[in-house]
Design goal:
The radius of gyration is 21 Å and the shape is elongated. The protein is mostly helical and 241 residues long.
Length: 241
């Protein structure tokens, strides 16, 4: 006799709970020993499971890593998207998105470094990570697009260098994928500033500011504002900090 809908729901619920427990234990091990040392056998042992049972949920370490990466991208993406209010001035949106990245990273340092730290030897991210991985860059490009459409960007200086042809092609690919129009010089500046943000956050999480810019609140807040100046975003300027 085939299982009833109630039985199927119970099995689905149990599977979801076990999957969550596996990922939670994997994140704990990630924090203790890093992604390179992540082991399905060790996860199974800590959960009191035989490894063959765990393989029914994640056939390999790379499958488990992919699940953690997708969760992390989605967590960061959702945080940034929730922080940005499209009706706010572009500069306020930029500031909110930037601080949301840092706040999420500080709350989830090992997951952030899984995304933007050293690559895991032997691991190659599959196509499944592309959509969640694009959520934060898409939020950035959309901020710039709104700024350009509403005239909230400073005029380009007459002596500003032209964007190289190769970079123009790459920038056009980005706007095509996201589906919005952003002037190439503005997008180039926005991406440069965004990499500055991620670099600062990475420095903070790995202790590179120790003894100098620690705590880094004032430095990072100040730099976020100066990067908004560099991009040319209009709106209320803050001193930072």
């Amino acid at each position: 006799m085939p299982p009833t809908p109630t039985h199927r729901t119970a099995r689905q619920r149990a599977r979801a709970e076990i999957t969550l427990a596996i990922k939670d234990e994997a994140r704990r091990q990630l924090a203790v020993q890093g992604a390179t040392a992540l082991s399905l056998r060790a996860v199974a042992r800590e959960l009191g499971m035989v490894s063959s049972a765990l393989y029914r949920y994640f056939p390999s370490r790379d499958d488990l890593l992919t699940a953690l990466i997708i969760d992390a991208y989605d967590g960061l993406g959702a945080t940034v998207e929730a922080a940005v209010r499209p009706d706010d001035p572009a500069r306020a949106q930029w500031r909110a998105a930037s601080h949301a990245v840092r706040d999420w990273a500080r709350a989830h340092p090992h997951e952030y470094l899984l995304l933007y730290g050293s690559p895991v030897p032997g691991y190659r991210a599959p196509q499944d990570t592309i959509r969640p991985g694009g959520r934060v860059p898409t939020a950035l490009v959309e901020i710039l697009a709104r700024a350009a459409a509403r005239g909230e960007v400073a005029a380009q200086a007459p002596d500003e260098p032209a964007v190289p042809d190769e970079l123009l092609t790459q920038l056009a690919t980005i706007t095509t994928v996201v589906g919005v129009e952003v002037p190439a010089p503005l997008l180039a500046k926005g991406l440069a500033a965004w990499t500055q943000l991620f670099g600062m956050v990475g420095f903070e999480l790995t202790g590179q500011f120790a003894g100098t810019l620690e705590p880094a609140d004032a430095f990072i807040s100040h730099t976020i504002e100066r990067m908004a100046d560099f991009v040319g975003l209009a709106g209320e300027r803050r001193n930072g900090g």
